[in-house]
Amino acid sequence: MLKQVLAGIGAGALLFGLTACGGGDDGDGGGGSDEGLVIGFAQVGAESAWRTANSASVQAAAEAAGHELKFVDAQQEQEKQISAVRDFITQQVDAIVLAPVVETGWTDVLQEAEDAGIPVILADRGVEAADEDLYVTRLGSDFAEEGRKAGAWAAETFADDADGTRILELQGTTGSAPANDRKAGFFEVLDAEGLDYEIVDSQSGNFTAEEGKAVMETFITTHTLDGIDLLYAHNDEMGLGAIQAIEEAGKVPGVDIQIIIVDGSKAGFQAGVDGKLNYIVECNPAFGDQLMDVVESVVNGDEVEKFTPVEEGAFDASQFEAELPNREF
């Protein structure tokens, strides 16, 4: 079973590109041309190196394509994103790009965009299934697949642990698509592989280093680290914060406790090279060019897939040093 899971992961990482499904709209918002588009982008925030790199990628790609990008940093607040989308509707932009901070609560504003004839493209994160008819497409990572990659490594690494595997989990922002799906994918594989495990504790670190460190300190105070086998952090920032807390507690991260992180930043890979963590699942932020292609296709009325994945990999300790120079954020 594990070989099948790993094979599926390898195949999934190769999925890339744009094919066909639900199309654009001929309403008042779309300009019908990919020249000089006005695009509204409601970004989650700047909570991590990943997010900063993602914003830079989209901004650079829009400029290179000759489009005007109206960029709003919502500071991880849904209300600010909703307000930004409504402002974009009022301004009659050609398309709206939304990176939703959480999955729920978008129905009204997405309906407003549809009523105005302005196509909405989701970037990075998704929304609940009930709202799928209110946006054209989503471009981003397969978060559940990222969780499966992490789970496959954990299942193989701890397969012979006769005493069972005791796990701590640092979740991302509560209610967000990456937090929900990275968790589900991870434990889906552990269960499928029949790993004997216990979730000792699982709390949100909100995708930030500061909160990741604070939650890890709480874990250490509540449970100590004796007998804890694995920390699964939903992103680099929380994992790096947790490493600080582990070191301050007198333990050796990557040795006394195995650590998995998701993102693949320079800082994350450097921590891996330094022996402080054990497995990195990549989440690629540099999809600005691909996003501009999707926006242009949507505005032109071309058919696009409902979901277009970006290309991503996963790396163990034997690969950290060679991969570090390739990191762009």
UniProtKB/TrEMBL annotation:
PROSITE patterns: PROKAR_LIPOPROTEIN. Keywords: Signal, Sugar transport, Transport. The keyword Magnesium does not apply. GO terms for cellular component: cell envelope. It holds the Pfam family Peripla_BP_4. Signal peptide: none annotated. It comes from the Bacteria. Residues 39-302 form the Periplasmic binding protein domain. GO terms for molecular function: carbohydrate binding. InterPro entries: Peripla_BP_I (IPR028082), SBP_2_dom (IPR025997). The keyword Transport applies. It is found in: Cell envelope. PANTHER family: D-ALLOSE-BINDING PERIPLASMIC PROTEIN-RELATED (PTHR46847), GALACTOFURANOSE-BINDING PROTEIN YTFQ (PTHR46847:SF3). Belongs to the bacterial solute-binding protein 2 family. This is Simple sugar transport system substrate-binding protein. It comes from Glycomyces harbinensis. The lineage of its organism: Bacteria, Bacillati, Actinomycetota, Actinomycetes, Glycomycetales.
